[in-house]
Design goal:
single chain; 403 residues; alpha/beta; VC0802-like; 8-stranded mixed β-sheet; 16 strands; binds S-adenosylmethionine
């Protein structure tokens, strides 16, 4: 950012850019952060801000892997000009840190200018050395064009990102990368897991909570319910965002796992938020829950896993779809009683790939029927799945229209 210009940021998203973009827009909106999305060309987005954004905001996001400040825009790819601007920026960063050593790397993201990364990196190193600095660089792994958050953090790199926005070449310096250690800790170090029921990835859980919290500021703390809580992954992410949480599950063993995981989380992160978990059928909880809720976020029973569904006959697949649709609609009907005005439900709905270009999906049916029940669709459906997966997650956020 130059002294008299406003800061512009490049947000780099993980493997579900549309969902991550919706999450970012929701968080910026809720925090009344002054800024406007200038362009979105997956996997990155340019945000024009009115004032510098805080890294506290960055830490709220589940779908963003890196954020950088755009420091230059070139009208075309000119290797000499690129080299000169990168060198200037790296020297400025070294001076700010009062260091005579520079460790750096250059990444390319999305549609990028045609530039030879190795030659550019070597040329930058040579110029920095000529200016008296001790220099080392790290290149992206062979076949990749981008340095990972892990490499940037572990190697302590200043990363420069080259990307394209319309005809302009953007030069960005990374200012924040996701805390992969903390995400891994919550995923792999928690005391209880239940792979047989399928657990939601924590980053997806975080994005869903961010999308389901109210659109504008609200009276904290939020209270988030997960009526199919499993081992409590969604609730853990809601607690990290400062919400009190309630989990229910039909299986008492899952309820116990949730309790243990959330007690561990509270301890590990010194959280002051409250949690409770109880055994209940998700379709009949409205009479049991006494607290005022802010939002419901959940990943229900999604039916059989990838291996099992492949063995189903067409008839049994159809029966399965009807059974699951009924479960979700019964839940949505019951939860409507619990939601405040404009309260939201973030929910995962499954679809099943049955051949290369055929998908069996209940998503449209659930959305249509939910509308009749008094919900509107406020975001989604967003696909979240590995390309070769048979069972795919579709993320929908409904908003209660009543009261
Ligand atoms: C896909 S898992 C949820 C996983 C959870 N998101 C996690 O990360 O651990 C679905 C959960 O729904 C529970 N379940 C199935 N049918 C239910 C029902 N009718 N009411 C409440 N819970 C139910 C299962 O016991 C299971 O724990």
């Amino acid at each position: 950012m130059t002294a008299n210009s406003l800061p512009a940021y490049l947000f780099v998203f993980g493997n579900s850019p549309d969902l991550a973009q919706a999450e970012l827009a929701a968080v910026l909106n809720r925090l009344s952060s002054p800024g406007k999305i200038a362009s979105f060309s997956p996997p990155s987005l340019v945000l024009q801000a009115d004032s510098p954004l805080s890294s506290q905001l960055f830490e709220l996001l589940g779908g963003t892997v890196k954020i950088g400040e755009i420091f230059d825009r070139l009208p075309k790819t000119d290797p000499d000009e690129l080299q000169k601007n990168i060198v200037q920026k790296l020297i400025l960063a070294a001076k700010e840190k009062q260091k005579d050593k520079i460790s750096f790397g250059i990444s390319q993201i999305g549609e990028t200018p045609p530039v030879n990364l190795l030659s550019l990196t070597k040329a930058v190193k040579k110029t920095l050395e000529a200016a008296g600095y001790k220099v080392r660089f790290v290149l992206p792994t062979r076949g990749e064009r981008e340095l990972t958050s892990v490499v940037i953090t572990k190697e302590g790199l200043d990363e420069i990102i080259l990307s394209q926005s319309g005809k302009e070449v953007l030069l960005t310096k990374t200012v924040w990368v996701q805390n992969f250690e903390s995400w891994n800790k919550r995923d792999y170090d928690r005391p209880k897991v239940a792979p047989h029921t399928g657990m939601i990835p924590p980053k997806l859980a975080r994005m869903m909570v961010n999308l389901a919290l109210p659109a504008t500021s609200f009276k904290p703390p939020a209270v988030v319910l997960d009526p199919f809580c499993g081992v409590g992954t969604i609730l853990a992410e809601a607690m990290q965002l400062g919400a009190d949480v309630i989990g229910t599950d039909i299986d008492p063993k899952q309820v116990q796992r949730t309790k243990e995981n959330l007690a561990w989380l509270k301890d590990q992160y010194s959280l002051s938020t409250k949690f409770s978990a109880h055994q209940s059928d998700a379709t009949q909880i409205s009479r049991k829950i006494k607290q005022k809720l802010t939002a419901i976020v959940t990943e229900p029973d999604l039916g059989p896993n990838d291996l099992q569904i492949r063995r189903y006959s067409p008839e049994s697949r159809q029966t399965l779809m009807e059974k699951l649709t009924n479960l979700y609609l019964s839940g949505l009907k019951d939860w409507h009683h619990l939601l405040p005005k404009s309260g939201r439900v973030g929910i995962v709905l499954p679809s099943f790939t049955i051949s290369k270009d055929k998908e069996l999906s209940l998503v449209k049916m659930v959305i249509d029927k939910a509308k009749i029940m008094g919900y509107s669709l406020s975001a989604g459906p967003f696909k979240y799945a590995r390309p070769q997966a048979t069972v795919r997650r579709n993320i929908c956020v409904f908003e209660s229209e009543k009261r």
